[in-house]
Every structure is written in structure tokens, then in C-alpha cells.
């Protein structure tokens, strides 16, 4: 059985895929990235991690295998156990295993499982078809001014008569004075025109404002509608499960016990196997739920496990 293929299919749809008796693959969405050193733009993706402490069978993987291979749920569970045994033997003797399209699992010096995810594929369905882009850097050229050497020709001196020079200066002074006077008069007329038009517009706007004020003083044609404020409820997709019970009265008894002990306990609707789940509580982030689960396993119930699902 190609267990890696079924795990990959579920990683596109769920945040947590548990392999019973071995561990769980978790996903977290990473937004689009830009790397300054490489000028690379990368689309949003799912980051995959591995948690060897989540081993309880939540039924997700076994149900998916039984549907695809047209077999019973029990047969799927047995097939998973066989494959998990092979993985554990490979880790003990070869110290590493490679899961296609997922990543590599290996043992460190303390015999703990270390997971190294592959960069491809991208399990975020919203980013389907998007690929990374490497943009070339922009090179700006520095313009250098080149001055050419110009050989000087022989200078020709013009000797003008004294009377003709004074005549040109007289005519030039008259032209400058005429242009200055004309410009001053034109600016004055333009400013007077703008001031007059502005005054007319201001009077018209003031009359309209006064009319609106009088109308608003005596009547309101259409009163403002009432405003309804809606408070968005915070999502709690991470849950610490106390257990699943075949008898509803047992589930109710455990629920009442946890509530009396101060937990924000919850009961869920029966699952696909007809069991009644009971929760210690629900949390908005994976870190909070993981911290609560570890504390509960130490002090209350070592079999408590984590469920990731929007309820």
C-alpha cells in the first residue's frame, strides 16, 4: 500500500493528518515571501511539520484508505499498522526514510524522530498554478559627461560707432518698460476677476447652506436607520479531547465531572463511529492547545489527545 500517496492527498484538505501509532503531520499557512538576496518572489504555501506525540487514531486516514481501496475500515487500520512497522524498522536499521512529496524522517543522537520537509509540492490549494519568480536586479548606468576640446578660431573684433550703440540701448529700454507695464496691468485685471468670481461662488454656497440648515431645523425627511453591531466570534479550531464514549450517559458523566473541576468542557455530536466525544476545552491557536494538552497529560489524563477541526 502506498501510504505516502494517501497522506499527501489529505494534506491538501486538512491541517492535521495522524498516522496511528507513529505520529502526525501538521500544516501551517505561510504568506507570500520576498527574498532580498535572491530577488525571488514566492507564493503562499503550507509549511509541514511532524509531531511524534500525536499517535491516537482519529479515523481520518483509515476512512480515506478504505474509501479509495474499497475495503473495510478494519482492513485499512491493519494495513496502516503493517506500513508503520516497516517505517519503524527502516528508522532503526537505516536511520532514515524518505516519504515521496512529503519529506525525510531520521533519528537524532537521542533516538528522536527529526523531520525535514521537501520544498515541493505546495499543499495550499489556493496557490494552485502559482510558481516562484526570480526578478533580475535593475542596473543603473552612470552617465559620464565627455567634453570635447574645441580649437579656438581667430577672434574677429567688431568696432561699432558710438552713436549707433546708444540708439540700440535707448530702444531696448523703451521695449522693456512697455512690457513691464503691460504685465503689471494684466496681472491686476486677472486678480480682480478671480476675486469677483470667488465672491459670487461663496455667496451661492452660503445661501444653499443656510437653506439646508433651515430645512433640518424644522423637519427630517428620512430618519437614520438603527445600527446593529455584530461581534465576530473567535474561532476555536484546536481541541483537547478527554475521550470518546459509546454510551451517552458515560459521556455526560465525564462532561459534568470536568465542568465541576473548572474545565471549559464541551460535548460534541456523535462521530461517524457512533461515539460521543468529550473535550477538556477548545483553543484559538495550536500553541495554546498543545500547552494545555501537555499539562493535562501530566496531571489528569495521559491519554488526552489533540483534535484540529472547526466545529
Structural features, described:
Helix content is 40%, strand content 20%. The protein is an alpha+beta fold and 311 residues long. It has a four-stranded antiparallel beta sheet with strand order 11-12-10-13. Strands 1-2-5 form a three-stranded antiparallel beta sheet, with helices on one face.
Give the spatial strand order of the biggest sheet: 11-12-10-13
**Radius of gyration based on Cα positions:** 40 Å
State the end-to-end CA separation: 32 Å
Quaternary organization: single chain
Global structural class: alpha+beta
> Can you count the beta strands?
13
Helix count from the secondary structure assignment: 6
Helix content: 40-55%
Concise description?
Helix content is 40%, strand content 20%.
Distinctive features:
single chain; 311 residues; alpha+beta; 4-stranded antiparallel sheet; 13 strands; 40% helix
What secondary-structure arrangement, pairings included, does this model have?
Blueprint: H1 3-11, E1 16-19, E2 23-30, E3 33-35, E4 40-42, E5 45-51, H2 60-69, H3 73-94, E6 96-99, E7 103-107, E8 113-117, E9 133-134, H4 162-218, E10 238-245, H5 248-260, E11 266-267, E12 276-283, H6 286-299, E13 305-308
Antiparallel strand pairs: 1-2, 2-5, 3-4, 4-9, 6-7, 7-8, 10-12, 10-13, 11-12
Helix pairs in contact: 2-3
